[in-house]
Amino acid sequence: MFTNSKLAKSVRLACAFGAVSTIGFSGAVAAQEAEEAADSVEKIEVTGSRIRRTDIEGANPVTVMTRVDIEKFGITSIGDVLQAIPSAGSAINTNNNNGGNGTTTINIRGIGSNRTLVLVNGKRWAPGLTGSVDLNNIPSSIIERIEVLKDGASAVYGSDAVAGVVNIITRQDFEGVHASGYLGQYDEGDGNKESWDIGFGVANDRGNVYFNVSYVEEEPTFAGDREISAVPVFGAPTGYGGSSGTPNGRFWYFDDEATSFNVQNDGQGGLIPWTGSSAFNFAPLNYLSTPQERINLYSQGRYELTDNVSVNVTGFYGNRRSSQLLAPTPLFIGNAAGTSGVTIAANNPYNPTGLDLTDTAGFGEANSLFFAGRRMMEAGYREFAQNVDQFQFNGGFDGVIELGDQEYYWDATYTYADITQNTLTDGLLNMDRVALALGDVDTCAATDGCVPLNFFGGATAIGEGTITQEMLDYIQFTAQDAANSTLESYSANISGEVFELPAGYLAFAAGYEKRWQSGYDQPDALIAAGITSGNSRQPTSGSFSVEEVYLEVAIPLISDVEFIEQLDLELATRYSDYSNFGDTTNSKVGLKWRINEDVLVRGTWSEAFRAPSLSELFLGNSDSFATLIDPCNGGEAANANSPGCAGIPAAYEQPNPQIRTTVGGNADLAPEEAESFTYGFVYSPAQVEGLSITFDVFDIEVDNAVSTVGAQRILDACATTGTTFCSLIERNSGGVVTELFNGLVNLGGQTTSGFDYNVAYNFDTEYGDFRVNWDGTYVDERTSIFVDPVTGESISENDAGKAFDRDVIPRIRTNLSVTWAYEDWTANYLVRFIGGTTEACSFDDDTDDAGNYLEDTLCSDPGVSVFAEDGSLESKDSFNELDAMAYHDASVGYSVTENLRLTFGVNNLWDADPEISYTTFANSFDPSMYEIPGRFFYGRINVDF
């Protein structure tokens, strides 16, 4: 231990503080101290390079977080910690209920979680079918530190390292036993979280073994228990944004004389006119944060077979049980709902109209069943329950080859990983059986088990209503889905110094890798057949392999001259040969210029490559029901200046805010190619001990970006132009959107640029030791170019500073933390700042109960509605400002004994509410960027012996 060095002091200070709130504690903080101790420190790999070196500052910007940093966040998932770093964009997490699946991912630069590569101890961690890694399954208790490279690194690591690399380093050479327990809860008395873990380690001169067991349980919160999420659209009139699938039912049909009836059940068997305020408030019956239970087993061992050869083995098993909960199934039928061949028979004993109502008749035709919706309260909640098993094994050899005075480090590794997910979904309906139960009563009677369905009767509560258990038994089913993805690879690497140049030793790293990935998604047979009341989808199955070689060199150019203490050139290139894409070569050039002991200037240019994931390539088409605003609502007359609305009947009214949208993979996708450019400096002035400043500019351009255009963007572009993306929309004769294809395509491109900064200052006083850390990211540009696959027309705009559904792009995010340590006490205070954004805010000139336009009452920058000469209503676009806000977190720790430490903390200390959003899918705030309302209190106990 270098007890007298600045490096040792820095490390001890970091361990004492934990830098709870540094979220992005820069490796630059100790750069100067590290170099002063370089002669005593062994060579190590730093993320971004395979070359071992003593200088921890390379040409790449790398952020480091220690194990103690992570513990003091008061969060049970390492994924949630990483989502809070300023360079991270919106990503899925356990606060995503409708559309979530229990995973938490990391999305560096906000350009897609599958463009961030995740490593554990420098080895690729297995992704799921989507190409993204579920960070929930990596227990925080095994982590020593996390290195986050905010730069492209395909030349070093291969595919997926487009925006950055997260490298999780586990505990090494641990001796003894450590254990911890954690309990937390919101001030509302819900959302309980607990975590328990224990680890054992044995080490000697020849090797070490470490074993860890961890358990995490997170309980849900309900949307109805928070004011902002208890209604479909916060602040809107009763019924706005609600569902036409109500417990009493809505029925829009034409009688045998083609007279229109838009009615609802009055709750007593009669029919009364439908009004918008009657729409069903489904929000309180949904989860706001989702529950899950995780059990993880981790082991690693290393043993020196000889002085120069060691064997190493790592094994991981994790099980996650998670679920999402939605309100009972809304059963929609009719040609506006997209069904085909459904007839409510006149002789159905519960049909009060006495008519054969069929969806085969068009809008305005006699006996047309245009739209009918009934909330199947008697069937209970829709629950989506995942049971995920993940296994990963890494095993191999490493050692040192001595040739003359030089040492060459080598390793050879085999990796096998398997992720299997089984999903059970309750509350779904078999639509073929629904059609039989609503149809001719004699046909139903002749069908085994068929019972006429009381579609027109009402329901009063969950599990209570006029639909009997016998009716449910015939039409209801539990879906059973299965998915799997596997990763297998062989790799070999060698690195070392070749010969000495005037400015230092030329060093290199080279390697080979062969990797196979395969997977499948097998939905339930009824879902695959498309006869479910929920989202149907087709099976997914596919595989690919890749063979790669790479070379990396570090060339010292100049040293020890005026204004150039050291100037190094870093070069890397990687050749990849894919079984389904052909071959590609990606290279990198980096320059590191240490002007003097205080100032380091650095820059890199790199090419990146990403092969589309198994899901992107082979995902079968599936349905979703996004909440969308049809710009053609009101028909051609109301949208005279919208070419895409031509020919739509004037009587057209969007019947349901949720429009069936088809998404799916595309086997013809081409790989993504990217270029990234970063440059900046590190300043650690000798005159101010403990101060470090870093500043890095980034610019990433992705070509052939794989993504969807976006359902709302497709509707709006078609309405505005009359051509762009119109081929992706199908409408029936009544104007209703019956199909909208939002599948994956290679877009024209995607770019993002901006800068990162970090200011860290450590200082000692008689009142204790302090650390101040200010970390931030500014986004200047994030642009996507969308090209119509039919017309070739394109649209693009800079989305920086804007908010979209589960994609919030604040121009600035910063984290400012102050940490104090004195004797046995520590305290931490963190401010997490999220910059303001602007979102589209259109309510189609709907009015509240007082007759005021919702755009005027809800949108912060409402459009001005005016009547044109022809009597049509025109309005400029409305916008809504999501103001800048900050979360404040605080914690206090006390070391009771040398081996026992207690920590108490509260996240969101000042009870800040998330910014209200009208574009996000649910809850009126975006869970990919903001947290659910409420203070979260937690306590932790750590024991080491």
TrEMBL record:
Keyword Nucleotide-binding present in the record's keywords: the answer is no
List the keywords (alphabetical). Cell outer membrane, Membrane, Receptor, Signal, TonB box, Transmembrane, Transmembrane beta strand, Transport
Q: Please indicate if the UniProt record lists Transmembrane as a keyword.
A: yes
**Listed GO CC annotations:** cell outer membrane
A Pfam family matched in the record? TonB_dep_Rec_b-barrel
Look up and give the membrane topology term: Multi-pass membrane protein
Q: What region holds the TonB-dependent receptor-like beta-barrel domain?
A: 364-909
Where is this gene product found?
Answer: Cell outer membrane
Boundaries of each TonB-dependent receptor plug domain copy?
Answer: 58-165
Per the record, the similarity remark reads: Belongs to the TonB-dependent receptor family.
Name it.
Answer: TonB-dependent receptor
Q: Which organism is it from?
A: Alteromonas stellipolaris
